[in-house]
Amino acid sequence: MAGLIPQHFIDELVARADIVEVIGSRVPLKKAGREFKACCPFHGEKTPSFTVSQTKQFYHCFGCGAHGTAIGFLMEYDKLGFVEAVEELASHVGLEVPREAGAKRESSSDDLYEVLGRAAQFFRDSLKDNARAGDYLKKRGLDEDTALRFGIGYAPDSWNALLKRFGSSDPARRKLLAAGLIIERTGAGARDTDGGFYDRFRDRVMFPIRDARGRVIAFGGRIIDSGEPKYLNSPETSVFHKGKELYGLYEARQSRQALTRLLIVEGYMDVVRLHQAGLTYALATLGTATTSEHLNRIFRLTAEVVFCFDGDRAGRAAAWRALENALPQAREGRQIRFMFLPEGHDPDSLVGEEGREAFEKRLAGALPLSEYLVEQLASQLDLEHIDGRARLAELAKPLLRRIPAGVYQELLIDRLAQQVGMPATKLATLLLEPGETATARPAPRSNFKPSLGVGRGSLVRQAITLLLNHPEGAKAIVGAEELTQSAQPGAPLLAQLISELKSRPAPNKAVVVERWRERPEGIHLDKLAVAECLVTDPKAAARDIQMTIDRLRRESGPSKRTNELLRKAEESGLTSQEKLELQGLLSARSGRETTRRKG
């Protein structure tokens, strides 16, 4: 757990805290049936769509999609880190936050921070001893002060330089592996003098990635000569999640300049060169498209963001993806703009050639999101004819509905109306739901798509949603363990949830969500936690979950194989080996059914 706070304490804290009291002390809440309502504190609205459930200890805004536990609210509203939010909530309920050494874990967070910090120093020292790497940085225009400020280093051209330095024992190698610094060999000859491992980064300029507290959490390595991949990033670990982190954010916050805007570029070197030129508000995503989590983090720091892309086809495609992800964040008071570079340039080369002032002049001319959206859609159509203008409105409709209702959405409708050539009020009526207007329409629900690999109404999705809303139902479920190796998307996660809730019951949804906060699957559960649950009776929920488990068991694993063999026995007969297999499967099924009846 982040900050080495014991999980049992997080459970107790979330169970004891009253989310209504926590949010109510910051946002005026009004009772509405079983829940409480307010105008959302995270986006402007006139009609309340922000609800707080005392039973589930969970909040959710049907407008912008914001949701979470009391801890999550403090992180979002008070701009706190996880540990700080836990400490704030603990003081609210009169508890003292304990700490643990993390000895029960193979590699605690503190262990990983220490390992990564030592590796960063090793790479910096290696840079001093390698003239070739130093010459490369000078050729790219970097000075020593900038390299030092960003902690840039060099990974030696060796398969085991880091291993020799820090991997002298098996526990030490396991820590390096958990930190993503080495790779385990596979196949013949895997066990060698280095314990079956080799360095992940070799002959690369190394860019340490730091968290908000300045701790090294990962690395990006850039090849010096030709070779693939050009950039190599650390894998995801317990302390590094690339969909959340922004390269250069720590350095930007350390700058003396106020963060009035943030500039999002694509590469490490782009960020470093821009900072060197005095543009200390430049950041980069880590080889991924800009995510909603990135944007949430950005808008907690500033109200203006500019995305900077190459002007070629790939850059335009990346910009459009960024626009689509940014639409739910577009609202009055925020500026989202797009800047495109001249052919053959990236921010690194352009700021080196033109300097800071010329670069910032280009930045001032960046296209607002609204203009870029209309321009891109219009460029695909012939607006001289009615067909083209009608098509423009149709293409804009799904994009428009992703923007929270409010002034920004209305102004964008006005801009589209100019292109389409019809009154804005009429266009709003056509683009929105029948009978609704841009001002009266409630903001659309968050259009999330869980990455469980299952459809919107799948059995697995429904079962997980039921379990999150009625975690006490897990104790009555039997047979779920058979799904741990199921190929059915989401089924292993469902089985794991049930198993953990049996061994450690949870009183409400909030406790479950907080337990999974730092796990990779936590993001899926977080999204499913806001899905509508129509079942209010815990016993009925348990029955529905059991029915899902029984069906999944029939469709996968031993049950599936049993049914296959029974069909074959009827149709064409079985071999002696298959008969023995069927006999064993039927015996095991009988044993499971007996256990279930006794339970």
Briefly say what this structure is.
The chain folds into five domains: 2-93, Zinc finger, CHC2-typedomain (DNA Primase, Chain A, Alpha-Beta Complex), CATH 3.90.580.10; 109-233, DNA primase, catalytic core, N-terminal domain (DNA primase DNAg catalytic core, N-terminal domain, Alpha-Beta Complex); 249-374, Dna Topoisomerase Vi A Subunit, Chain: A, domain 2 (3-Layer(aba) Sandwich), CATH 3.40.1360.10; 380-431, Up-down Bundle (Pheromone ER-1), CATH 1.20.50; 459-555, DNAb Helicase, Chain A, CATH 1.10.860.10. It is built from 26 helices and 16 strands.
Task: Output the CATH class name of the largest domain.
Answer: Alpha Beta
Largest sheet strand order: 1-2-3-4-5
Distance between the termini: 34 Å
- The radius of gyration over CA amounts to 28 Å
- Second-tier CATH architecture of the largest domain: 3-Layer(aba) Sandwich
What structural category do the secondary elements indicate?
A: alpha+beta
Q: Helix coverage percent of residues? A: 40-55%
Query: What is the approximate shape?
Result: globular
- Biggest sheet record: 5 strands, antiparallel
Unreliable parts: 102-107, 434-456
